[in-house]
């Protein structure tokens, strides 16, 4: 699949060793051990006896973080490309005359200058879109939704993609993403257009520093926390329903069974009763303010409480 992406998206020609030539395959496959040899002395490296009974558990010797291990890999690659002397390489006469060493970097520079090397310049977004893994995202009215995060881009805001999603609904699209960096994704609006970079919206920017795997771990931790808290919420919900039922029952008992006024009379007085209650609340707040101003500037031992505060305290006392 990766080779197909190089051919179809970047126009790079892929050449494989021919069949029935085991002598050539060995040379290529031998390079897979280049870094493994350099990794021999790292803490936590598994030995040949790993998994056998009564052997050391090499995992307990691990000391490196993922970023530290990646840094070591990069240094090994730089060492090989810039300084590794390939004794087996067959130099041409021109290379010998020009004192070209069989070092990968020197061979590359020689080939680009004197052989058929012609470099192409490709936009960074195009390269990332072609090489990075792909996934499914959705254009919504809030932005481009991918793995639980919302992204945006200038083209999307200018062309009103997200406003259109309110009317037409979600649209499924294919995007490329870097598993190590969740701050941006790459999207190709049409077959002929260049990929564009979509950035995290402000509401999700705090998650841009995490990798895809770290985001999955955060979501798992949130899920576990929610499930652990659910019994507490359910229990308090039951208590709250009991309090509400008590308040309603008390109100029903206090309401006269045979009202003196007719239904029409009572409904016609609703507006006046509501205004009277608002005025009463306002007068009480004014009285509380004036009484607090007349007192000394020091903080009173018992602060003045509004009717709403007293009601809340009463409800809490009944609950607990």
| Helix count from the secondary structure assignment | 13
Helix content: 40-55%
Shape label: elongated
* Number of extended strands: 6
Radius of gyration: 36 Å
How would you characterize the largest beta sheet? 6 strands, antiparallel, barrel
- Listing every helix as H and every strand as E from the N terminus to the C terminus, the arrangement reads HHHHHHHEEEHHEEEHHHH
The gist of it:
This protein has helices at 2-10, 22-30, 34-38, 66-83, 93-97, 104-114, 124-131, 154-158, 161-168, 212-254, 263-268, 270-294, 307-319, and strands spanning 134-140, 143-146, 149-152, 171-178, 181-187, 196-200.
Overall description:
It is a single chain. With 320 residues, the protein is α+β, with helices and mostly antiparallel strands. Among the domains are: 2-84, no CATH class; 124-210, no CATH class; 264-291 and 303-319. Helices cover 52% and strands 11% of the residues. The chain has helices at 2-10, 22-30, 34-38, 66-83, 93-97, 104-114, 124-131, 154-158, 161-168, 212-254, 263-268, 270-294, 307-319; strands spanning 134-140, 143-146, 149-152, 171-178, 181-187, 196-200. The chain has a six-stranded antiparallel β-barrel with strand order 1-2-3-6-5-4. A hairpin with a 2-residue loop joins strand 1 and strand 2. The longest helix is centred in the last third of the chain and has 43 residues, at 212-254. The radius of gyration is 36 Å and the shape is elongated. The mean pLDDT is 82.
């Amino acid at each position: 699949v990766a080779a197909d992406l190089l051919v179809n998206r970047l126009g790079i020609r892929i050449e494989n060793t021919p069949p029935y030539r085991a002598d050539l395959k060995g040379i290529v496959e031998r390079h897979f051990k280049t870094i493994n040899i350099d990794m021999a002395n790292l803490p936590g490296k598994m030995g040949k006896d790993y998994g056998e009974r009564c052997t050391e558990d090499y995992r307990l010797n691990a000391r490196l973080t993922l970023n530290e291990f990646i840094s070591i890999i990069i240094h090994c690659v730089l060492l090989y490309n810039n300084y590794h002397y390939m004794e087996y390489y067959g130099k041409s006469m021109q290379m010998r005359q020009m004192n070209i060493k069989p070092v990968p970097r020197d061979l590359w520079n020689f080939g680009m200058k004197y052989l058929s090397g012609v470099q192409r310049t490709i936009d960074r977004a195009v390269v990332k879109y072609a090489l990075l893994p792909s996934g499914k995202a959705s254009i919504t009215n809030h932005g481009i939704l991918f793995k639980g995060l919302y992204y945006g881009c200038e083209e999307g805001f200018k062309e009103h993609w997200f406003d259109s999603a309110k009317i037409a609904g979600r649209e499924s699209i294919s995007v490329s993403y870097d598993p190590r960096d969740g701050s941006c994704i790459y999207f190709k609006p049409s077959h002929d257009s260049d990929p564009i970079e979509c950035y995290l919206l402000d509401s999700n920017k705090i998650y841009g520093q995490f990798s895809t795997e770290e985001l999955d771990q955060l979501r798992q931790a949130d899920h576990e926390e929610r499930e652990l808290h659910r019994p507490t919420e359910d229990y308090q919900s039951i208590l709250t329903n009991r309090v509400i039922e008590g308040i309603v029952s008390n109100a029903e008992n206090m309401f006269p069974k045979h009202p003196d006024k007719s239904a029409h009379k009572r409904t016609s007085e609703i507006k006046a009763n509501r205004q009277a209650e608002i005025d009463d609340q306002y007068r009480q707040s004014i009285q509380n303010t004036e009484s607090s101003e007349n007192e000394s500037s020091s903080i009173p031992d018992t602060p003045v409480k509004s009717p709403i505060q007293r009601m809340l305290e009463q409800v809490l006392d009944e609950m607990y």
